[in-house]
Amino acid sequence: MESFYRTHAYLVEHTNAPVRRDLMDEIDWNDRLIGIKGTRGVGKTTFLLQYAKEKFGTDRSCLFINMNNFYFSGHTIVDFAEQFYLHGGKVLLIDQVFKYPNWSEELRTCYNRFPGLKIVFTGSSVMRLKEENVELNNIVKSYNLRGFSFREFLNLQTGMKFRAYSLEEILNNHEQIAKGILSKVRPLDHFQDYLHHGFYPFFLEKRNFSENLLKTMNMMVEVDILIIKQIELKYLSKIKKLLYLLAVEGSKAPNVSQLATDIQTSRATVMNYIKYLADARLINLVYPEGEDFPKKPSKIMMHNSNLMYSFYPVKVDEQDVLNTFFANSLWKDHKVYKGDKYITYMVDDNKPFKVCCEGTKIKNNPGVTYALHKAEIGRGNQIPLWMFGFLY
């Protein structure tokens, strides 16, 4: 136990979160079992350590453990939690909980047996906490940690502390909001950098970003999808090839029959793999309003623009990049549906949006909101695209 405390103390002392994530204030920390999901690379481990540092400091009633530790090959979570609890432990932070077999049953046992113990755990976005782990129903509160928004990236790059705005605030008051931001920085000076490498916090590391992202993407498939979905290793190459084909084809409706032929499997298996890739936050699926999986999506796009540049940089289409940025920024709190030939997306309850490259000729339809690339400030129903990066 003492070695875990030493590791915890070292990690907390050397944790320096570059941006304080808003999720820290959105979570109800009074709940006894809290799950924090997110795609690999968005900073879940740092988030846990920052919580420990901010709320507990050197207080030994909080302890961080990682299921990568070989200790848990011979000891159960329940036994460890009991020892921690008997020694005055109050908050147990468990990183990468899915690495431990039967983790959900053991968390349920801990919840029942140690009423004074709070457990906060991280897991992959591929996990369906409540749907696939019925023992956690009604006791776990689940949250999602996303990659950096453009606002968070801008704050980090400039030292500013711009707040997030709701979609309604942006639609109704974007000119005043933009003027306030432009009085301090020029967002467009940083926007292309964000599109290229700003979503994942590890761009701050002194390593090649694209190589690091490719490594992370491989881990998403090899670890998150294969282990959590219990897929045999021999099918790994098929999933990787499918992801590559979807990436290089750009944002469009998938030809499921052709994809099935290309990776030598059935149509049904292709659709399941597509769902797993979406759960891993590698791709996004766009449907017409009222439709959802298992129907074929109207469009498959990369989850965020950083992925596009790492997959096939010579073939990146600017309009696809801008559409991807817009959808990914909206997806946290809104529904994004397929548009028609005149609009890019329908958002929530019939809000039409058209994402426009620089120089696009606009036949202004007052019922449509236009998101304009490379515009610093907007007017009326024409809003700078970068402002949608302030939604979270």
What does this structure look like?
Helix 4 packs parallel to helix 5, helix 8 (about 190-195) crosses helix 13 (about 305-310) and helix 9 (about 210-230) crosses helix 13 (about 305-310). The longest helix is centred in the middle third of the chain and has 20 residues, at about 210-230. This protein has three domains: about 1-145, P-loop containing nucleotide triphosphate hydrolases (Rossmann fold, 3-Layer(aba) Sandwich); about 150-185 and about 320-390, no CATH class; about 200-305, Winged helix-like DNA-binding domain superfamily/Winged helix DNA-binding domain (Arc Repressor Mutant, subunit A, Orthogonal Bundle). It is built from 14 helices and twelve strands. It has helices at about 1-15, 25, 45-55, 75-85, 105-115, 150-160, 165-180, 190-195, 210-230, 235-250, 255-265, 265-280, 305-310, 320-330; strands at about 35-40, 60-65, 90-95, 120-125, 140-145, 285, 300, 335-340, 345, 350-355, 370, 380-385. A hairpin with a 3-residue loop joins strand 9 and strand 10. Strands 2-3-4-1-5 form a five-stranded parallel sheet. Strands 8-9-10-11-12 form a five-stranded mixed sheet, with helices on one face. Strands 6-7 form a two-stranded antiparallel sheet. It is an alpha/beta fold and about 400 residues long.
